[in-house]
## 1
Amino acid sequence: MDQTLIFWTIVGMAVVTYIPRLLPALFLSGKTLRPLLTAWLRLIPPAVLAAMLVPSLLIREERVSFSFDNLFLVAALFAFPVAWKFKSLSATVLLGMGLVALGRFMGVGQ
Amino acid sequence: MLLNRSSVTGIRRALPIVLGYVPIGFAYGVLAGKSGLSETNTLLMSLIVFAGSAQFIAVGLFASGTGPAAIILTTFIVNLRHMLMAASLAPYLSGWKKRYLALFSYELTDETFALHSSKAQELGESMVEALSLNLTAQLSWVLGSVLGIFASGLIGDVKPLGLDYALSAMFIGLLVSQCANRMRVVTAIISGGLATGLYLLGLHQFHIILATVIGATIGLGVEQWIKR
């Protein structure tokens, strides 16, 4: 794709990202939502994060892989407790990337 | 914005995000360079889209030759969660002028949302602090991206450095910070399992939003059922 088309794609991405961020703030600010809706909204962040994360850890080449070759899953087994213990995003990211790099360096997985 | 006590507090509260955003923004900058995005376009995305996971996903799609319409649609679906996050903060943003609401929501990400929702009750009175927190977060993301753009030419392949794992690792950190009680953990497990199943069934873009809505709804149902 040429850079001009990439530019316009990014502009389109910006529009579709901003509108959903903006509309609720403009129209719901200061309003009280129903308790049931609030309870549902509170569950959205863990739900969407897990929906993006779990397939990226489990699926290799269109199949579920629980083998030690699956470095993304192995690294996650270490990254989860570190994230839990230290509550640090950067520590989790650096450890995860480090483990994947180490695994590849030693040739134990991909 | 004046550099008063509130804005300094906002900057200080943003520091954990800064520590996460600089290395992740760096990984994004490197990957974007490797995927054939120009330096200007790479930087532009961090300035006007400012959504970490969507930027990573988009870079992957650009590299695989996906068309503009599919990339924009994917971005929309992946970022639709911010609408739900904005809606959950909105009731606390009372008394804010429209232009400040517009600025605030422009920089609403998973990370800034997590910090704001932990002190949501005070948002109405702490506008300057909230805006300076957001601005600090985006500046660190842009800084990381710029460093990545410079490093991109120096790094031959991202895989030996594990940079392709940055996104998953970021999700792990964010997910753990969101799992404050048992119902949230249950919701995450349901939603993650569903997303995997739907993906394997061939739903390669809509699996995220479908699994999110179904997972959160089942979680809410279980929560209400237990309360009785």
## 2
Amino acid sequence: MAMVGDAISHAVLPGIVIAFLLTGSRDSVPMLIGAGLLGVLTTFLIEFFHRYARVQADASIGVTFTWLFAIGIILISVFAGQVDLDQDCVLYGEIAYVPLDLWITEGGLSLGPGTVWTLAFVTILILLFITFGYKELFLTAFDPGFAAAIGISTTAWYYSLMTAVSLTTVASFESVGAILVVALLVAPPATAYLLTDKFKNMLLLSVLAGIIASVAGYYLAVWIDGSIAGAIATVTGIEFTLAFLFSPSRGILLKRKQLQPVQH
Amino acid sequence: MNDFVEFFSFSDTNIRYVTLGSVLLASSSAVVGCFTLLRKRALVGDAVAHAVLPGVCLAFILSGTKNPFILLLGAFVTGWLSLVAIDFITARSRIKEDTAIGLVLSVFFGVGILLLTAIQHSGNAAQSGLDKFLFGKAASLVGEDLIAFAIVAVLLLVTTIIFYKELTLLCFDQAYAKTIGFPVRLLELLLTTLTVFAVVVGIQAVGVVLMAAMLITPAAAARFWTDKLSLMLVLAALIGAFSGVAGAFVSYTAPAMPTGPWIVLIVSMIAILSFAFAPKKGWVSRLLRQRRNKTQILEENLLKLMYQLGEQKPNYDAPRQLHELLERRAIPQKEAKAGLKRLQNQGYVEKLPSGWKLSSQGQRRGERVVRLHRLWELYLTQYLHLASDHVHEDAETIEHIITPELEQKLIEELDFPVMDPHSARIP
């Protein structure tokens, strides 16, 4: 499912542009709604092409998100005078549409109150969603057949999970951009997945990995005077590499050591 | 219209460059894309597209120049590394391939952005223009780019033609390729290299995100029109070339329009139309086929019912009321009526004041369905030793499918039988 997250993070662009054109403001709420709708539409289109037109799954993802992203860029070009968005901010979050008085750092990360409040709101929303839907999400993820058998609507949960992904994406959009959101969506869970077999631990570990990456990434960016978002993504990559090599249970270096005693 | 003539006369050198560049790029990456698509690895192109950024930046930092060949070399190295990393992570841990792709893609890109911003902040004046790698610059192609495009396009096409057989086998039956002694690893490497080449060159025209579309979308569209690989390659190249020209045309008539996104938009529309309307494989034609099958089954069931009613007396010519038919078999009344109407138009039944009557033609067709049903039941009991009360359901389905040749074969195999397992006569 990781690439669906990637697809959504790109495909929400037209939703953001349209929300902007309709409301004429950079309010977070209409943008969140626009992006959320587009996220669900993306998921739906991918499913639709795959299931009804029998396009193979990876091609269906690739066609859908590039198509929507192209529409988004064209919309930006058409309404260039009216839309205060540009391609840079879409890709790596130079936050062109956060009002100037909220800028705090040089590097391109806004710690302005507006962004922080939006992110806090979305974080709480996501936490509530996971707390209340934990059992259903857990079952849908691990055993969709069983989940369906005991009366959980796997489709509904699938789409609500994807809505959550779209919300997270668009909330982080302003600060890190479409592609680096994917680093934050994919890398910490992948790191945690190599470290534990328990789903609850995996959730906690991935949150921890995300926090460490943000803090360390910030200092890395300050140190070499580069983009904070890029630095955070770099650190998530380093974290994953460490887990990949040295995870006590699954790291490829330590795992080999465990296998050796068989020889004696 | 004037624009149209002016554009297609190619009198302006700029138009020539942009159009030719777009066509070369779109068609050569479409050809490579066909192979990655068939190997079910369509999204790796996306990963490579993102992963070239750190390479470009590193090459710039190390060499200090913007020489396109040095930058391309850097792009090539990291693009290639990213594919190796994906393979390695997938093979050596329990991370699945799509996760590995997402991970490698975003982390490489993050490193690239970090380096790019660091270069930009370093105040080096020579750096401007590096971000062309991010968003593409199809509209500002110059002669030098065109030469690079042409070289790579020709290289890709020639390699594909030379290794056509090997690559085909790699896509369709890797295990077989291995057994007959093909160097599978080397071929994989070759395909990887081709993909990286296509991406590295194309990315300058359409940008990071849309590069994936240049690889995947024409191939996905072509896949819906044919089952032959050679034809698919040609079709994909044509679709790519067409959208290249069309994209260049749009951005010519409306200069504010970016060429790359328009190419992608057009190629996507072609792909989506293909998904929907391609003969045989498209969504619509499959729906139509399903409907046709459904009406055929309904009609044959009606004829069979009338024949079976006739068998009881036996008088096959007697008119039947609709409710007599529906008593024997639950068919929604509306459907049954519509089906009878259609059968009447085709001359299988006649409508009399006292009910519906089989024509001689209808009688023959009903008889055949009943025969096939009973033959199949007999076959199942004799050859698969199924209990005679288990075979009816299966025969209900297959009676609509068996061809005359198969029918003949069944009759011979069963030695010209007279009775089915339920002791009903086989007509």
## 3
Amino acid sequence: MSVRSAPSVWRDPVALLAAPAVLYLLVVYAFPLFWLLMKSFTGPAGPTVQPYVAFMADPFNWRVIGNTLRVAAWVTLVCFLIGYPAAFALARAGAFVQIVMLVSIILPLSIGAVVKAFAWQIVLRRDGVVSQLLLGLGIWDEPQRLLFTETGLVLGAANIFLPFMILPIYSVVKLIDPRLSEAGATLGATPLYRFAHVTLPLTLPGVVSGIAFVFSMSVSMFVIPSLLIGDRFQTLSTLTGRSFLLMRNEQLGSTTAVILLVLAVSIVVGSTWLARRMGGSTT
Amino acid sequence: MTAIERFTRWFVWAMAGFTVVFLMTPLIVTVAVSFGSSTVFTLPPPDWSTRWYERLANMRGLLPALVVSLQVAAISTAAAMVLGTLCAIALVRGRFPGRETISTFLVSPLMLPGLVIGIAMLQGFKAMGLRDVYASLLVAHVVITLPYVVRTVVGALSLLDFSLIDAARTLGCSYPAALMRVLVPALAPAFLTSGMFAFLASMDNYPISIFFTDAWTKTLPIQMLQYVEERPDPTIAAISTGLVLLAIVALIIGDRLVGLRKLADF
């Protein structure tokens, strides 16, 4: 690398190769998003925040926001509780177990949400697999239907998003030298102390990006709640979809879409900042 | 080994086993239901049958939806490969400011809610005068497929030793020939895997496609969701099994080309 300042875009001909893709996305992706943002702040008589004020004034919408965040938080928690130990197992497993785990993680990633959500409709029925399992274990006395309940939605969504929790954590766990923890043991640290002071801090960047992935996907999921819980339970995403596709209420739809967009962008930006900060502190 | 360590070890492996079963459950259930004779999704099925596969031929709208999905996925993936590869070369080889920003921008469609992108495009395309549903679907799907190509090809290019191209030229290759003989084979695995996953992402997309649909143009996921809402029966499981099979084939090819562990890189 030379010390002199980087040449401008115009003097580096290679930069022109990026132009088609960047221009394409600017026109068909960035401009529409900008247009949506502008339109949501434009009323019949010029700039306005009235749609947002009206939206926030309705207690129903607060329930919708509450539903969205609560379900996303539960899904993220379930994914974390299963995914964190699973990521360790994946990193430390022998070749055969590792392949079995990798296949079961990557294969569902290549299959669409419609297929998996439809399968969960079957799994969560009164005579479905979950109900039969819990009956067999003696946890339930009689068969119950989890389909169209919040628990069922959380279970299905956690299943679909779990790979996005395991893979980022796995990518940092596999870099940790297992001897670090042994060194701690030699120096007399208890297992709990070693976990809290050696292992956990090293895995935090992966945990942050896993949580950010799962949380933002859970906030914006649309197909999964439509199939697993139905119309009576609205989230920001299903409300946005419904107001465009069914109610033809573009004003409401644009407002919720922008709220959803702001939420998603702040999760991505916030988690990137957090991960970068933690990455800096551990090295 | 202390009790805590023994418990931790046991817990980690129990969770690993649970994860495998949990993640495979929807796929196994789908396949089992599609080969069962029961109309009401009884599991395990009382008897095996292929009647749901036989019914696929008579499903109204299934074949056109499949054709639209395959066409859109193929064309948008091809377009994304061209745009994405050119851009990846600029990002890896270029020495201009803002490369970080550009690569975040190109991958960002993966991180924003699909539904919001779909709505924005619906209104944006209308404002720009693009009204044809099929063309809109194609234009939108390039945005879906592009991030996969950029991400993977940038990764492959940053590992490539570019002096190989100079070496080929020193040995008498013309510049295009050197590119064809060095760059293309070196990038082939990245092209194939990113192309495959871009193709699958396009095939499976629902939240963006739903806004570019009319009575004649429907993609497979949209047609499937319509079946689920109208009359859920194991025929849908039979279609799903087809898609599972497609994913398995993609995974096997991906494993042969770059290895499973590489596919799991995040």
